[in-house]
Design brief:
Elements lengths: L10 H21 L24 H4 L8 E5 L10 H10 L3 E4 L2 H4 L4 E5 L9 H12 L3 E5 L7 H4 L1 E7 L4 E4 L13 H4 E3 L11 E6 L4 E6 L4 E8 L2 E6 L3 H9 L19 H14 L4 E3 L8 E9 L5 H13 L5 E4 L15 H12 L3 E4 L26 E2 L5 E2 L3 H15 L7 E2 L10 H7 L4 E2 L13 E4 L7 E6 L4 E2 L10 H13 L3 E5 L7 H12 L4 E5 H12 L2 E6 L5 E7 L8 E4 L3 E5 L3 E2 L5 E3 L8 E8 L2
Parallel strand pairs: 1-2, 1-3, 3-4, 4-11, 13-14, 13-23, 13-24, 14-15, 18-19, 19-21, 22-23
Antiparallel strand pairs: 5-8, 6-7, 6-9, 9-10, 10-11, 12-27, 16-17, 20-21, 25-26, 26-31, 27-30, 28-31, 29-30
Helix pairs in contact: 3-8, 3-9, 10-11, 14-15
The protein binds zinc ion.
Length: 630
């Protein structure tokens, strides 16, 4: 069974799947007489402890003037945490630090007040300090300011909280923070489905005259204000990033997505793009860590799901076709070693031989679970001691199973892939049917995985990779990076007939520096392989074609990079320093000012605005002197 789609509106593919089920079930009953499992080699998977993160003040300290200052306004006893803002700024490559000290924050040119400002946050003298800061050219981005003492600075008369605002529309203004919101899907977003009587909290503002309204809620109140004050400008958002970014990413939104898969859905990304545009508009001589490697514009991440007995051999065809098109892909393999109601076992020697050939040919391999249950999202976590010798899961029907756990599906599939394929270390996972249990991040982390691709990009409203929060909650990040699926092959009328639509989505993401993940099941290598080749050949040359694992490794090293910019005695020269935790190739920095020369080991792009680093070794420290053209 290779279905991934939700029940809604896809009766055709469900009917086909049910037919396969009936046949498969009969075969399974016939084979069930033999209860033995094949003798497969395993590599032991140690059970790791969860590491806990430091508070944001320790994790993100002040280190250079260009950093955006985040003034953390929540009392120490509050359960509020900065995950949503950390995700937004880090994904955009914007440098920042956290502080509780207003004086320290105001020594930087850009300040974010987070997560809100009420009557206990600041005193009148501090409100005046903020106002003076903006008059002299500083910029503030704030969300949920309730305190009357800041009404004149942010330019509002009143506000009304509500959980019944469902839409947001950006108004056509030429404000610089709107720079990246050019498409219709970006000019309007959905905050939740009307099926819910109440959704996320919003604060609708009533602006003063002279205050610009950049976005309106459906009840006509203002969602985003911009107020000019002296030489500076302040922005106020009537929503919480925890609701519009993090709640989308952990899939706890009120069905804010307008599509499930195969469409452009930037509902969470718009807030990241606004912060990026804000930084680029107001920081002086800004420098940003690019989202893509090698000075390229975007990346197409190719993957295949191998989740049927006849999906192995065609996989080799895909691998070959991709190589002739200078591309590569990641194969997510179902390690089905038991017969059950859904299918016979197929993780045996003739197929293992194909996997070894894929691996030695340069393809990468991830896990696609063992029994590929549609009920995976309801499985118990398990003990973490599940192992091939004793783990005997069985699908009882399409979404029911016995003897199966989240740990079992994640760990035992890794034991087998690592044991049977030379040189394999399985660190990428994709759930069957893209069904995600809340405990998945924990099971993956504790089993030594680093990456997951079990959501769709439309469903999480995000086209940038992100850290999955533990328990898919709001409190703490796991160490697992999520790469959601943008384009898949099964929804009618099938991938072969949707290439132009897929290309349009990929180009929309490329405009934002976001990535697109393509999933093609390798159950046949004729129509689908032709379509994939067609797509690859039409792809602009500044979009990298890569397997998922290579890009995921780049993204992880990028996310963990420590970097800083410091001034020199020469006004047209700066020093860019970085320390990479992992091995990484092609890290790219974007500069506001055009560059004339770089002193150090790095390449300058033809546009003079991007610096591309060569391969860095783990722990390597690099220092570059960058000389501006003017
Ligand atoms: Zn599958």
């Amino acid at each position: 069974m290779w279905g991934l789609l939700r029940d809604s509106g896809l009766k055709q593919s469900l009917t086909a799947a049910l037919l396969v089920l009936v046949v498969g079930g009969a075969l399974a009953a016939w084979k069930m007489t033999s209860k033995t499992v094949p003798a497969l080699r395993i590599k032991e998977v140690p059970l790791l402890e969860l590491a806990h993160r430091h508070p944001p003040f320790q994790e993100f300290p002040e280190s250079f003037p260009l950093q955006v200052a985040v003034l953390w306004t929540s009392p120490a006893t509050s359960p509020e945490n900065p995950l949503a803002l950390v995700h937004s700024l880090k994904e955009m490559g914007i440098p920042f630090f956290f502080t509780r000290d207003l004086e320290q924050a105001l020594r930087h040119r850009l300040v974010i007040l987070y997560p809100n400002v009420d009557s206990d946050t600041l005193n009148q003298a501090q409100a005046e300090q903020l106002t003076t800061f903006v008059r002299q050219g500083g910029s503030i981005f704030a969300q949920n300011v309730f305190w009357g003492g800041l009404q004149p600075l942010f330019g509002f008369r009143s506000f009304a909280p509500s959980r019944k605002r469902y839409h947001l529309a950006f108004s056509a203004t030429n404000d610089p923070v709107m720079k990246y919101l050019n498409r219709p899907e970006e000019r309007e977003t959905r905050l939740g489905s009307g099926h819910y009587p109440e959704i996320i909290w919003s604060n609708g503002y009533v602006p003063n005259s002279g205050t610009d309204v950049l976005a309106y809620f459906d009840d006509g109140t203002a969602a985003l204000l911009a107020n000019p004050v002296g030489r500076g400008r302040v922005y106020l958002l009537g929503l919480s990033l925890a609701d519009v970014v993090l709640r989308s990413q952990n899939n706890h939104d009120y069905e804010a997505e307008r599509h499930y898969v195969n469409a452009f859905e930037p509902g969470a990304d718009v807030w990241l793009l606004i912060l990026r545009a804000w930084y680029e508009a107001y920081a002086k001589d800004w420098v940003r860590l690019s989202t893509i490697s090698g000075g390229q514009r975007s990346a197409l991440l190719l993957s295949h799901d191998v989740d049927w007995e006849n999906s192995f051999a065609p996989g080799l065809d895909f691998a070959r076709i991709e190589r002739t098109n200078q591309a590569n892909s990641t194969f997510f393999v179902q390690t089905k070693y038991v017969d059950d109601a859904n299918s016979n076992a197929f993780f045996f020697e003739s197929n293992l031989k194909i996997l070894r050939e894929m691996k030695s040919g340069g393809s990468s391999i991830g896990s696609h679970s063992i029994i590929h249950s549609r009920g995976f999202n309801k499985f118990e976590l398990g003990s973490g001691h599940e192992t091939y010798g004793s783990y005997r899961p069985r699908g009882l029907g399409f979404d029911t199973a016995s003897g199966a756990t989240v740990f079992g599906e994640v760990r035992v599939s890794k034991e087998l892939l690592d044991g049977e394929i030379p040189g394999q270390d399985t660190i990428f996972f994709r759930a069957g049917h893209l069904r995600v249990p809340n405990s998945l991040p924990e099971a993956l982390e504790r089993s030594g995985y680093q990456f997951d691709s079990s959501f769709t990009a439309d469903d999480v409203l995000s086209n940038f990779p992100f850290l999955l929060p533990r328990d898919l909650g709001f409190e703490e990040d796991s160490e697992i990076y999520e790469f959601p699926v943008t384009i898949e092959d099964e929804a009618p009328p099938g991938f072969a007939k949707r290439v132009p639509q897929a290309l349009a989505v990929i180009l929309a993401n490329a405009e934002n520096g976001a990535v697109s993940v393509v999933l093609v099941h390798s159950n046949e290598s004729h129509l689908k392989a032709d379509a994939e080749q067609d797509l690859l050949r039409q792809l602009p040359t500044d979009i990298v074609k890569t397997d998922m694992l290579s890009f995921a490794r780049f993204w992880r090293a990028r996310d963990r990079l420590q970097w800083s910019v410091s001034a020199t005695s020469i006004p047209t020269e700066i020093v860019l320093q970085m320390t990479s935790e992992g091995s990484v190739n092609g890290l790219t920095f974007e500069f506001q000012r055009p560059i004339s020369t770089i002193i150090g080991d790095a390449a300058l792009s033809p546009d003079n605005h991007h610096v591309v680093l060569p391969e860095l070794k783990p722990g390597q420290r690099v220092s570059l002197r960058v000389r501006y053209l003017r």
